[in-house]
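Chapter summary example.
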Amino acid sequence: MPTGPELSDNYKYRNFRMAMAGVASEVGTATASAGAATLSDLAGLITTESLTTAQNAIYTLTITNTKVAAGDLVFAHVYDGTNTQGTPTITRVTPGSSSIVIKVNNLHASAEALNGTLKIGFFVVKAL
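The structure predicted for these 128 residues follows.
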């Protein structure tokens, strides 16, 4: 006899669908140019073009992704590629119809601009 709350059929179906979709096998890679990349996978890693984003300035990456809908959840993270300066921080992730817009702010405490590429990873959780 279960001791916790019952899971809804939608919740069970979503978890089953994610497990069966083989999300791990759908991790793609792409390289951005002029703040844009195309990658139609549920998870991916984008290498940006070389950036010189100043302190407190924002770099916007737009990913064209046919597997994303406006109601989906998208989680993203950023780390240095060739960049060795600044403090790149994701400040907003906005899923849309076949697109993801990711804003990266350079939050460095002094006037240190970015000086190379970043790696931006993401994964999509489909809406019910």
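To summarize the output: DSSP finds one helix and eight strands in the chain.
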